Amino acid sequence: MRVTETVTKNASPGTAAGAGDLVHTADDPNARGPVKPGYDPRLTNGDLVPLPEQKWGSYQIFAFWMSDVHSVGGYVTAGSLFTLGLSSWQVLACLVTGIAIVNVLCNLVAKPSQRAAVPYAVICRSVFGVRGANIPAFIRGLVATAWYGIQTYLASSALNIVLLKLFPALAAIDDLRGHGFVGLPLLGWISFMVLWSMQAAVFWRGMESIRRFIDFCGPAVYVVMVLLCAYLLYRSHWHVGFDLGGTKNGSTVAVMAGAVALVVSYFSGPMLNFGDFSRYGSSFYAVRKGNFLGLPVNFLVFTLLVLFTTAATVPVFGELITDPVQTVARIDSTTAIVLGALTFTIATIGINIVANFISPAFDFSNIRPQLISWRAGGMIAAIGSVLITPWNLYNNPEVIHYTLESLGAFIGPLFGVLIAHYYLVHKQKIVVDDLFSMSADATYWYRKGYNPAALVATVLGAIASIIPVLANNIGGVHALAQYSWFVGAGLALGVYYVLATRGNLKVPSPS
After folding, report:
1. What are 310-347's pLDDT values in tens digits?
2. For the chain, what is the largest distance between any 2 Cα atoms, rounded to a whole number of angstroms?
């Protein structure tokens, strides 16, 4: 069956998204365009309306993913796979397979936002209803808040190393028992809040500052990782073994499948709201090309660096180290430690702002467009990131996997419903003007602004995928936890398609 693709819109005049711009915000008077007459103010502000021009090429998409991949979190997640008992080539195969799946899924998510030129939260109005879209926006905002805290914590760990190397006396307040609070020592709190404040300051200065910041981050990490890898290989006299041990629980095929699922879960957050960035793409082809360069190609190079660097820590330091910050800390040179740790810190700040500040900024703004500006939405996420004590969510490989499984359990259903609605139910048709209408006659009003079929499918998918994560004492059930994203996405997709195409909850076709 051939699927038609239709985007009905009448774009209003406004400010163009330049090739070097990241996003436009209502807080920037030079980037704010007039809202189209007739758009309901309860659904509209300068951040959410369709872009009149889309100028991003494939390079801008590639640069986004390069910054996203090159983070301490990405390195730690990749390195944690070595603890599963897989050989190095198996870990490499899992990482490449996982990122290839992410590439395909990102293309699926990208298309509706690129065609309609609106962010993820607004596209959700076509699925959940103009009022119901606040539910996925709120969930995605909370997930981004959690990741914002996690990435800030990882960056603060690097800053800790720099401070201790330069000022050894600070070790006195790096004691959790004597100077600790809710799981973090005083020095950790100082580093965390310093970076928290730095990120908030960069974000507050606007998108041009952010763009310049991330332009440096991705390449900088590559330089440091290449130097770090070369240094460790030299120190090991180029004798590196790739059998890194670890205890394997279950068959090799099962463990590898779980590792692939873990990679998808790691990228599930930015993948879900990738529409926030694909909306700027000059064409869907440009977005797909940028995704290919930024995900499979770029990630393969990144993975090889992680593989060789991690493997080299065994002969050089006598143990397997999966955290690049800890690896840098073992180097004898103070200058190398400071430069390396600071680079990882800056790079993590860059991706944190892009992936975990911009998303909740849009998501929370969508909930109350006239009350919550883009900046206010980002600051809500920043404050929440402290309250969740992220250092307790990402402090060892087991907790890392548990965190990713839990987040994937809630993100998966949102993805499944979105894909089912756009591709299978509404056949790639979007009436853009109705995304901003509260009229009972508008396409996305559904039932008082909510689409019951989408809500039911999301709830069932979330319940089914979170149960295995929480079932720690039930071996057979808990084994499904690593597939929480797939369980939630698949079940929600199937349930929504059935409910939306037949019965009392059937969704009408767009006019």
Report:
1. 888 888 888 878 777 778 778 877 777 777 777 777 77
2. 72
Q: Which amino acid is at 21?
A: D
Residues 6+ away with beta carbon under 8 Å from 9: 50, 116, 117, 430, 431, 432, 433
- Cα-based distances in Å from 348 to 325, 351, 460: 11, 5, 35
Q: At what angle do helices 298-317 and 72-80 cross, to 10 degrees?
A: 70
Q: How far apart are CA 86 and CA 158, in angstroms?
A: 28
Three-state DSSP class for residue 17: strand
Per-residue HEC secondary structure of 314-330 comes to: HHHHCCCCCCHHHHHHC
29 pLDDT more than 60: no
DSSP code of 432? Answer: G
Two tokens, residue 135: 């539910």
Strand partners, 429: 6
CA 159 – CA 180 distance, rounded (Å): 18
> Residue 125 is inside which H or E element, if any?
helix 120-128
Q: How many CA atoms lie within 13 A of 217 on its CB side?
A: 28
Q: What are phi and psi of 378, to 5 degrees?
A: -65, -40
223 phi, psi to nearest 5 deg? -60, -50
Per the structure block, which two tokens stand in for 183? 């799981």
Over the stretch 95-150, which tens digit does the pLDDT of each residue have?
889 999 999 999 999 999 999 999 999 999 999 999 999 999 888 888 788 878 88
Instruction: Give me the CATH code for the 51-403 domain, please.
Output: 1.10.4160.10
Bridge-based pairing state of the strands 6-8 and 429-431: parallel
Whether the model pTM is above 0.85 = no
List C-alpha distances in Å: 198 to 147, 191, 201, 224, 238: 17, 11, 5, 22, 39
Could you write out the DSSP letters of every residue in 366-384?
A: HHSTTT--HHHHHHHHHHH
